[in-house]
Amino acid sequence: MCGINAIFAYHPDAPPVALAELIAVRDRMAKRGPDGAGDWMSANNRIGLGHRRLAIIDLSPSGHQPMLAGGPDDPVITYNGEIYNYQALRSELQAAGIRFHTECDTEVILRLYQRDGIDAFTKLRGMFAIAIWDPKRHEMILARDPFGIKPLYLADDGKTIRVASSARALSERPEVDSHISAAGAVGFHLLGSVPDPFTIWQGIIALPAGTSMVVGRNGASSPRKFFDLATEINGPGAGEGDLASALRDSAAAHLVADVPVGLFLSAGLDSTTIAGLVSEISGDPARAITLGFEEFADTPRDEVPLATLAARHYGCDHDIQRVSAREFADNAETITADMDQPTIDGVNVWFVSRAARRAGLKVALSGLGGDEMFCGYDTFTDVPKIRRLARMALGSRKLGVAARHVIGALPLRGRSPKISGLFEYGGTTEGAWLLRRALRMPWELDQVMDPDMAAEGLGMLAIEQRLRATRTGIDNLTDQIQALETGWYMQNQLLRDADWAGMAHGLEIRVPLVDPVLFRHIRRLTASGQRPGKQNMARSARPLLPGEILNRRKTGFFVPVADWVLGDRPAGKSGRGYRGWANRIAGQFGF
Prior knowledge:
Helix content: 40-55%
CATH class of the largest domain: Alpha Beta
Number of domains: 3
Shape: globular
């Protein structure tokens, strides 16, 4: 895990790359890579690569980046992430006569690219954001992993393209248009995070997950997909054996490291399953970190007792960190400063990552993704209910708009402001999902934004059309919801938050449940009529999880951030729940 950046002055009229700018952006990401820094510039100063290192695999200086493949005409790479199948790929390449000079996964990517070109990215199992300079082709090649676990941001002014792991690092450069993006602001106020490919800044976009891009003398190509979520969901899947074997395989792959690997442990099925799998695979006590909240101590919301039960059950070396409202207040400014883009989530990950780093860990496994992969969210039952209700009551979108105005005028105390849009939006999968997931609905934006900016942003974002495109071609309703949860909520919120919150403390967060090999195995079972659920996942751990955990009613991991933000103030119309926190975050980012 690291921070990477690159500058490519591809147009002949562009000024040469300034080493000072390259280093400034690189070192703005110093928290991402506290173990070292490197840079490389071409002889003509038209391309520069930068790297901040968090040493996880091959801790020796030979793993230093940017890494050169050989002579001046050979590729150069800067890369962020981990490749879990690098040893198998290395053996395959060695069998073909390719020689290696290091023990790290970075060189495997480089040699694989030399052999296979951009098709190399389809063979990588892991999380990655990659920039490769190919001098023979005079091209910079960019790539991002299938689920978007690792971020990669681009700022292209038509003559020079700038690339970095951090959008915020790019936004602070005077060469980059850092005006607030109307689409980004609307996306945040609608969803609580900014959806890719937009960012909160006009001049910066995200490279879409599962794509590669080539930048040559004529600028950047359109992103080319090497992993398509809808295609994978519709496909037959792949793999052999049962679910338990596939889960153990993914957990084992995610333990590959030359430093100790710990795990985040809550009372939920996802992290406790990971704990069971790891204890079975490694045979050694795993270092487990649990986050609790002072406000929840001795209440049903307290995660600590059941997490402690799981830790004892699997023989974990267990650390417990409790956080209070006072500690949140003391760290709130630092947390928002560490955010790469505005988000209403990630506070819990920031605190548990800090605890993990203080415990001496550089790597921690997270149960993130279990609800997306195994259809565990209430969304999977709520969206069909919303659709049925809306379609029974009103069959017309126009009637739904009229109903919203009528319902919105009624004095229904304690109701969600979104309820008035039930009949306008609830008749489609994307509309029902938006009602279930949105922080605010489109008609509410004028309360928190300039109306003209809101209208512009809604037009650019085209939220319903984009949501519809995500599930287009997928017939099964559960599969449609899975596509939306995975491609929107997990990717734009959970994975992005795990990245910035972990990197704020120099901690690599790995997600064994978000793995293409495992996903294809799940899809194979689903295609055969055996769709696995959360209980199937949890019952894969050996020894079996305690009944208190297996049979616990799903509650989600609740963070009292809304209460912390409100303090003693009443929850007004704009301050209810996470909306108050969202307003505060928006203010911190200047919109």
